[in-house]
Amino acid sequence: MTRSAIDLPITDDDRRIARLAALAIGLTLAEAALPSPIPGVKPGLANIVILLVLLQHGWRAAAWVSGLRVLAGGLLLGSLFAPGFWLSLCGALASLSVLALARHLPTRHFGPVSLSVLAAFGHIGGQLALVGAWLLPAAALIKLMPVFAAAALVFGTVNGLLVARMLAAPGNDAAELSGIATGARDG
């Protein structure tokens, strides 16, 4: 076996991010299989993982997990560089930007539910901005906004409640979240 000229050390953080990204990718694939009554409206199940990572490991780890999820989801769903990929990427970038700003808000008023709702509105806002610039005229976009805003509010609230419940579970800590994807801890 030929040894690589580039020797990159793999840290426990790298392994944790890979496991959490795998979990987010799995949720993305599962969600893609779900029928949607309104095209483009999805519950954002992978955003649960992103929010958990943000709250337990910080924004940088959440950004890695989100970016890996978008890229791998595009590859695995066969939509890499197709319009759906760009919509997902714009939504993820806008959501991460909102979460980066929201980290500076008082934590006693902005917990998992409000952060999830803000992220959901950021996500749909990023997607609608791209759609408005690329695909639809402004008049058509305005008609879609109430539907997407309502979906962002509902799914953002539900996902935030799920995150709050997971964080409040007895014995919950960062190591347990890291073991979700494999069902076991590093050995």
UniProtKB/TrEMBL annotation:
Residue intervals passing through the bilayer: 20-38, 75-101, 113-136, 148-168
InterPro entries the UniProt entry points to: Hpre_diP_synt_I (IPR014535), Hpre_diP_synth_I (IPR010898)
Listed Pfam families: Hpre_diP_synt_I
Sorted UniProt keywords: Membrane, Transmembrane, Transmembrane helix
UniProt entry tagged with the keyword Membrane: yes
Tagged with keyword Nucleotide-binding: no
This protein's name: Gx transporter family protein
Origin species: Thiobacillus sedimenti
